[in-house]
Design brief:
single chain, about 250 residues, alpha+beta, six-stranded antiparallel beta sheet, four-stranded antiparallel beta sheet, about 25% helix
Length: about 250
């Protein structure tokens, strides 16, 4: 009798674990079909306060769990929305009335899962853009250790076949960011102390961009309007830079 109960205590948990694993693989792990156009429009309009969605321009899979949807409103605004597969359903993570570039991520701590998305007004006639990853020079002291961080300025140029699109974070950007994070991580697990952080704040990465016309001049975005909307995920605005803000070695002409 005791052997029978002992056998059950071993087999039953194994069955439950196996069944749970199969369910996760078949249902939770694998995203289902994306939403219909009618449902996409309805979900956007619930959050969109500056009119109603008139046209879905595209449905673009950033990967199997993240979908980018650029749209045009009945007030001629070019906005964008972003869904992520979460908890066995497609969850709306962002709606923006502006198509200015935004960095989105399904995992804030992992640069490899970050994407830049945009939906500019076609009348702005942007031919290409240069995106930048920057970090200012910094000096800090922690636990008796001095750390100098030189200025970082990395760029990625992309041509615009259409006025909307997406770009995965360049591999060299994510590699550098991850190596920098690892270099900052203390070996003993003790973070930078509060006193020194107050006087020597840790540097942070920032994203920027410059749009260009077909004449290689900085484009004036007169029709792409300011951003409003909502975001329940990790998003970061990409600020438009002035060429004078850049190091001369990487400045675009």
């Amino acid at each position: 009798m005791h052997k029978k109960w002992k056998w059950l205590w071993i087999v039953v948990p194994l069955i439950l674990v196996t069944a749970g694993g199969l369910y996760y693989s078949a249902v939770v792990k694998n995203p289902g079909s994306f939403l219909s156009q009618d449902r996409i429009i309805n979900e956007i309009n619930k959050q969109f306060r500056n009119g109603e969605t008139e046209e879905i321009l595209d449905i673009e899979y950033l990967d199997d769990r993240n979908v980018f949807v650029p749209f045009r409103s009945n007030k001629d605004q070019y906005g964008m929305a972003y869904w992520e597969w979460r908890m066995n359903e497609w969850e709306l993570m962002m709606v923006s009335s502006s198509g200015n570039p935004v960095m989105i991520s399904s995992n804030e701590g992992d640069p490899e899962n970050q994407f830049i998305v945009w939906n500019l007004h076609p009348d702005d006639e942007v031919e290409k853009a240069v995106f930048y990853l920057t970090m200012e020079r910094n000096f800090q002291v922690s636990q008796g250790e001095q750390l100098y961080t030189p200025r970082v300025q990395m760029k990625e140029e992309i041509g615009f076949e259409k006025s909307y699109g997406s770009m995965k974070m360049p591999a060299d950007w994510s590699t550098y960011m991850k190596s920098y994070q690892q270099a900052l991580a203390p070996e003993d697990g003790i973070p930078f102390d509060v006193f020194n952080d107050a006087f020597f704040p840790q540097p942070h990465f920032a994203y920027g961009w410059i749009p260009y016309t077909n004449q290689n001049e900085v484009a004036e975005l007169q029709h792409t309007r300011g951003q409003s909307g909502f975001s329940s995920g990790y998003t970061e605005t990409i600020l438009q830079l002035n060429p004078s803000e850049l190091e001369s070695s990487s400045e675009e002409s």
